[in-house]
């Protein structure tokens, strides 16, 4: 409980002030009601995050209210997910594991964000704990309902993560029909909205999967281990990731993770807790596979489910090291050496925490700068007559449209939802603008008018807008394109 309270306080102190919604967040939040038109919902996305934010987003557009709600909710979920393991692992191991996971900068940064990854992590941790309890102690009603519900949450948030979570858990419970059925029911219940939407808008789940694969660059053998390591220096998305590795020190803990997890598995086995830790480790590795070996880009948030589960064997290892370091050895010299080992271990963990907070501060500052850019462009559009109801297309139109209270309509790409001719037709009814960043050329479907300077941004340079004439006025020539 204390660990969760401290982590929530850190989020509110470092992430919340000056915070605005990021690109992906605007997509999820816009689906949850309120005054802003819903952004185009592309094939890879799932509705879980939108359902999560409805209680706040439907009532207020305040980012602060949303951040506080999510931070408090994630803190409570952190406590609940680790408590599932309380009958399987000692309290000191769970406290250590919770502290290790919750103080990673991706966990702190995304704790108050309208993003699915942390919720997948906590759901995966809870689901694996319920299954471990069922396997080792028998499957009662709590275990069956808990495991099914936790798997459903993960699938609802990110269907792919749900599949990689369910794979090892279904294998382990293949000879336990009741738990197997509970997991299968949770898998289907969580996937139901995604499947229904696939039939309604994509022609079926297989077609939607194909489109999702296209958007994500396809699944295949792609060694992204180095990309994930580089992204830990503070990149929320590394795509493409052919960049210099300027801060390798931020990934030292990540490189040690496999050895600490292996050491923890050995220590747990000697303590009679090997089966539970082995299940956590195997499930964590399963969740890491697609993001390390099957996609060609990286984001630290993708591995949060794996980190949550691997925090358990790592905590077993660290608790064992601490116990050995402070164990009296019978001679004063050895006692003093043991104390120094405790101090050294504490110093290493403190240095790790300092690095995580430094990266968190840097990532938060960058995020705040980006959202300030979106707000500046949106304000400039308002000053130039682009006010709701309105339509925005072009460079970063999705988040900027949310900030402006407009609908975003792209003519191509991942968020393609309108034809060039359709955009020109929309401009006859509502104020419409086409955005260009960094001095780029005029899109062929934009009106043949001089661009209007909107804002100078840190992230994308100069923003200009090609504004269609006000609805009802004489049309300005615009080439719809092919």
Write structural notes for this entry.
The protein is mainly alpha-helical and 482 residues long. It has a domain at 2-326. The protein contains 18 helices and 5 strands. A 5-stranded mixed β-sheet has the order 2-1-3-5-4. β1, α17 (397-404) and β2 form a beta-alpha-beta unit.
**Largest sheet, spatial ordering of strands:** 2-1-3-5-4
> How many helical elements?
18
Spell the H/E element sequence. HHHHHHHHHHHHHHHHEHEHEEE
Radius of gyration: 25 Å
**Largest sheet report:** 5 strands, mixed
What amount of the residues lies in strands? 5-15%
Structural class: mainly alpha
User: Low-confidence runs (pLDDT<50, min 5 residues)?
Assistant: none
How many distinct beta strands?
5
Overall mean pLDDT score? Answer: 92
Distance between the termini: 59 Å
């Amino acid at each position: 409980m204390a660990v969760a309270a401290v982590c929530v306080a850190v989020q509110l102190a470092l992430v919340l002030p000056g915070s605005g919604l990021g690109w992906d967040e605007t997509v999820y939040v816009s689906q949850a009601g309120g005054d802003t038109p819903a952004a185009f919902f592309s094939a890879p996305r799932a509705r879980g995050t939108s359902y999560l934010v409805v209680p706040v987003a439907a009532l207020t557009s305040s980012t602060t209210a949303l951040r506080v709600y999510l931070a408090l909710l994630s803190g409570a979920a952190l406590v609940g997910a680790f408590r599932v393991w309380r009958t399987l692992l000692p309290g000191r191991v769970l406290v250590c594991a919770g502290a290790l996971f919750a103080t990673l900068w991706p966990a702190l940064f995304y704790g108050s964000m309208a993003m699915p990854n942390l919720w997948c992590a906590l759901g995966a941790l809870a689901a694996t704990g319920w299954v471990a309890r069922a396997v080792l102690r028998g499957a009662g009603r709590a275990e069956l309902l808990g495991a099914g519900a936790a798997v459903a949450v993960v699938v609802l948030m990110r269907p792919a993560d749900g599949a990689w979570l369910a794979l090892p858990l279904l294998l382990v419970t293949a000879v336990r029909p009741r738990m197997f059925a509970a997991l299968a029911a949770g898998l289907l219940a969580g996937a139901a909205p995604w499947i229904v939407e696939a039939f309604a808008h994509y022609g079926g789940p297989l077609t939607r999967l194909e489109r999702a694969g296209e958007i994500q660059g396809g699944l295949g053998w792609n060694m992204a281990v180095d990309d994930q390591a580089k992204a830990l220096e503070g990149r929320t998305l590394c795509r493409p990731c052919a960049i210099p590795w300027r801060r390798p020190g931020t990934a030292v803990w990540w490189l040690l993770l496999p050895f600490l997890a292996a050491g923890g598995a050995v220590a747990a086995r000697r303590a009679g807790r090997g089966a539970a830790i082995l299940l956590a480790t195997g499930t964590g590795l399963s969740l890491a596979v697609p993001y390390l070996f099957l996609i060609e880009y990286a984001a630290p948030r993708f591995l949060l489910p794996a980190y949550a589960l691997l925090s358990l064997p790592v905590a077993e290892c660290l608790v064992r090291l601490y116990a050995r370091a402070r164990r009296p050895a019978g001679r004063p010299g050895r006692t003093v050496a043991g104390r120094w080992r405790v101090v050294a271990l504490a110093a290493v963990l403190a240095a790790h925490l300092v690095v995580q907070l430094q990266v968190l501060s840097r990532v938060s500052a960058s995020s705040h700068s980006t959202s300030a850019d979106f707000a500046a462009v949106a304000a400039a559009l308002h000053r130039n007559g682009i006010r709701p109801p309105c339509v925005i297309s072009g460079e970063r139109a999705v988040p900027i449209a949310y900030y402006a209270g407009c609908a975003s309509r792209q003519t191509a790409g991942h968020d393609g939802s309108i034809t060039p001719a359709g955009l020109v037709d929309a401009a006859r009814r509502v104020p419409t603008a086409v955005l260009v960043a960094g001095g780029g050329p005029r899109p062929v479907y934009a009106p043949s008018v001089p661009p209007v300077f909107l804002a100078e941004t840190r992230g994308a340079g100069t923003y200009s807008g090609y504004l269609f004439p006000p609805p009802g006025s004489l049309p300005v020539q615009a080439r719809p394109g092919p």
